[in-house]
Amino acid sequence: MNLSSQLSLVKGVGDKAAEQFANAGLHTVGDLITFLPRGYEDFSEIVPIAAISPGKRTIRARCEKISTRRVRRGLQITTATLADSTGKLQAVWFNQPYRVTQLTGHDEFYFSGEFEFSYNRYQLTGASAEKVSDMPVSTDRIVPIYRAVKGLKGQLVRKILTELKPLIMMLPETLPQGIVEREGLMSYSRAVLGMHFPDSGRDIERARERLGFEELFHLLLAAQYNKQANSQLDGWHIPFDQTAVKGFVDNLPFALTNAQRIAAWEILQDFEKPHPMNRMLQGDVGSGKTAVAGLAARQSAASGFQSALMAPTEILANQHAETLAKLLEPFGLQVGLLTGSVKGAARTELYARIADGSVDVVVGTHALIQQPVTFHKLGFVVIDEQHRFGVNQRQELLKKSARMPHLLAMTATPIPRSLALTLYGELDISILNERPKGRKPILTKIWSPNSRAQLYDLMDEQIAMGRQAYVICSLIDENEDNDLKSVEAEYKVLLTGPFKHRRIGLLHGKMKPAEKDAVMNEFANGKLDILVSTTVVEVGVDVPNSTVMLIENADRFGLSQLHQLRGRVGRSEHQSYCYLMNSTSQKPTQRLRELEKSGDGFYLSEVDLKLRGPGEIYGRAQHGELNLQVATLGDTKLIARAQKEAKRFVESGQDLVQYQQLAAAVERYQRLTTLN
Ligand code: ADP
Ligand code: MG
User: Fold this and answer.
1) Is the CB of 294 under 6 A from ligand 1?
2) C-beta 601 within 6 A of ligand 1
3) What are the beta bridge partners of residue 55?
4) Does ligand 1 have an atom closer than 6 angstroms to the CB of 534?
5) What percent of the chain stands above pLDDT 90?
6) What count of other Cβ atoms lies within 10 Å of the Cβ of residue 424?
7) What are phi and psi of 542, to 5 degrees?
8) Do residues 339 and 416 lie in contact, with contact meaning Cβ atoms separated by under 8 Å?
9) Where in the chain is the domain with CATH 2.40.50.140?
10) Which DSSP letter does residue 186 get?
11) Ligand in nearest proximity to the CA of 284
């Protein structure tokens, strides 16, 4: 029996069990051993109902009565009476109507939840429920709880893992021994044992530390190798050309901020190095990233290289093309725009002009990575809002050059340093932490739906002064099941009600690109007073005359996203306003209060990381692909330790070949964490 043995060969696994495992994606012994518990129940602390006191509590009881009612749209409350031999208590769940089916009957359950005072009485809130008969009968105090993937029974998982215990105890070490010793970590075997058969809470902690460390070590080691690999590539040499740079800067309608100057200087220095640039430009919304990218493109063209700028939406690509044309055409450079809307002969012609090098700067959407696009001499690639693209898409574009081109990945979602290190390794980072001169802070205010009328008056005052406004809604269609404002419904309401004397446009993701562009252009040219939109305006859109933003159901958005949205106003010398409409008249969340207080994207990203954890922020896909089972990207201490060891490992010149499992994990991560 070894890790790659089929589970069906393990004692106690019949056909039916094997099928259940297979449905849950568990085929081999190794799969099951690394199927880690999602949590634990501590049954040493079961209290009789008669003796219960407030706090996190576990009881062993039957459900006597249970029912669900719908309080309002979006909220269902399930209440139950639970009884043991000493007494009864009331339990409550929010939006978990399935509890009725689960708990009706005569089975006994362990309920673990918060016993607290709410709705005018003490009750057990949001308790988990585990059937007593599914739990091991032994004296085990701490029982691991497994995810019930496709109905997989925890009882079965525990039983078969018990069969495999002797094998787990023999598992060889997977990390280099020196690291295990220096870091004082549990052995691999003890850690896996500790996850599945813990003796104490401390045991679980130590096991998680060990396995989490290992995951982070893989990730950070991959980053180290990426850095090393990059420094061995030959890049294009783009020498500093003072005349070109000075000409560009003198022609700008504004003076560069200091932060822009430093970032540009860092980029131009990278251009001169023998290996390709691999740099991220982090700049808060409105910090002027495009001008920096434009300057670099100017420099690249001065040496005869083409540049490509890829943006996630058509609206953005159009805007960038327009901006860059203004900045670069005075120097005789050609800027081309390639999106899905460029069709037929125009597209064919553009392909030809990109291929023969007569277009110097190509701006576009995903269309840029399509097969017919070939460059004459691509030297510099800019990816705007880089987190919106997958690794493969970035690589497709980079492959269109004979050598690895210089890469500038731009993002307006500032990433806390610790996290950037883990996600992108030893990246070079430039930061724009300064807003262009003359910009006033955006006045941000949380608003209660009770005073909606006053708010509309304030907005109308601004419009009367010639300014424009955004109204942001989260959804496209009216949805029976929730209270959220849909963009279409809201559009109709505003059109016939409070703003019937104003010109209103509608924008959402389901519209055709041409329709979107038409509306966006009308808004940009001042032909609309109000744009009712979903979050499609979140990234990059630049209409300086708009000074008011109303975000409906603001409490439903993430902090970083709200900050991004808010960045659509405050783009001129006029005072701008952002109103955060709460869904209810209740106390606003901490998220909204933080946003009201601060306009600093870097500060807000740290707060967001604390409040929500990294997975929610940096895209589920990206975090999901990292596939961290134990480690969290918010654990900066463990990250620092793993980082130190990864550096040490690479510097020691050890060969990965002797660590098979390590090598495989690292290789997988190398693909995921590279920028270029
Ligand atoms: P972002 O970093 O959000 O992509 P943009 O590049 O869209 O920001 O720039 C935002 C606006 O600020 C644009 O209208 C741009 O022309 C203007 N801008 C950029 N740099 C400066 C500067 N140094 N001084 C004044 N305005 C600037
Ligand atoms: Mg931008």
Assistant:
1) no
2) no
3) 115
4) no
5) 56
6) 20
7) -125, 95
8) no
9) 45-140
10) P
11) 1
Q: Is 256 in the pocket of ligand 1 (CB under 6 A)?
A: yes
pLDDT (average), residues 311-322: 90
Q: Which whole-number Å values give the CA distances from 474 to 380, 484, 552, 584, 619, in the listed order?
A: 36, 7, 7, 15, 17
- The CATH superfamily label for domain 45-140 reads Nucleic acid-binding proteins (2.40.50.140)
Ligand 1 contact via 545 beta carbon (within 6 Å): no
- Name the class of domain 242-273+287-411: alpha beta
Nearest CA residue ID for atom 23, ligand 1? 256
Q: Does residue 366's CB lie within 6 angstroms of at least one atom of ligand 1?
A: no
The tens digit of pLDDT for each residue in 58-94 reads 999 999 999 999 887 778 899 999 999 999 999 999 8
Instruction: Tell whether ligand 1 has an atom less than 6 A from the beta carbon of residue 619.
Output: no
* DSSP classification of residue 232: T
pLDDT grade for 622, boundaries at 50, 70 and 90: very low
Taking CA atoms only, the protein residue closest to ligand 1 atom 24 is 436
Atom of ligand 1 at shortest distance to CA of 257? 23
Closest CA to 354 of 341, 340, 462, 369: 369
Residue whose structure tokens are 């893992």: 161
Rounded-to-integer distance, Cα 368 and Cα 393, Å: 10
Percentage of the chain beyond pLDDT 70 is 92
Q: What is the distance between the alpha carbons of residues 68 and 57, in angstroms, rounded to a whole number?
A: 23
Neighbours of ion ligand 2 (CB under 5 A): 540
CA distances from 565 to 107, 236, 534, 560, 561 (A): 50, 37, 10, 9, 6
Does the CB atom of residue 540 touch ligand 1 within 6 A? yes
- Mean pLDDT, the chain, whole residue set: 88
Burial 70-96 (b: 16+ CB within 10 A, else e): eeeeeeebbbbebbbeeeebebbbeeb
Separation of alpha carbons 6 and 30, rounded Å: 9
- For the domain covering 443-598, report its CATH number: 3.40.50.300
Q: Indicate which ligand has the atom closest to the C-alpha of 432.
A: 1
Question: Residues 29-34: what's their mean pLDDT?
Answer: 96
Predicted TM-score (pTM) above 0.90: no
Q: Beta strand 108-118 with 121-131: parallel, antiparallel or unpaired?
A: antiparallel
Which residue from 552, 551, 547, 587 is spatially nearest to 443, judged by alpha carbons?
547
Higher pLDDT, 602 or 279: 279
- Tell me, what DSSP letter sits at residue 463? H
* CA 322 – ligand 2 centroid, Å: 13
- Rounded mean pLDDT of 593-599? 92
pLDDT band at 485 (very low <50, low <70, confident <90, very high): low
Give ranges for CATH 3.40.50.300 in the chain: 242-273+287-411, 443-598
d(CA 114, CA 159): 30
d(CA 594, CA 224): 36
Is 385 near ligand 1, meaning CB less than 6 Å away?
no
How do residues 507-552 score in pLDDT, each as one tens digit?
988 888 788 888 988 999 999 999 999 887 766 678 999 999 999 9
pLDDT digits (tens, 9 = 90+) for 283-309: 887 789 999 999 999 999 999 999 999
Least confident residue range of 42-46, 199-203, 268-272, 491-495: 42-46
- From the CA of 283, the nearest ligand is 1
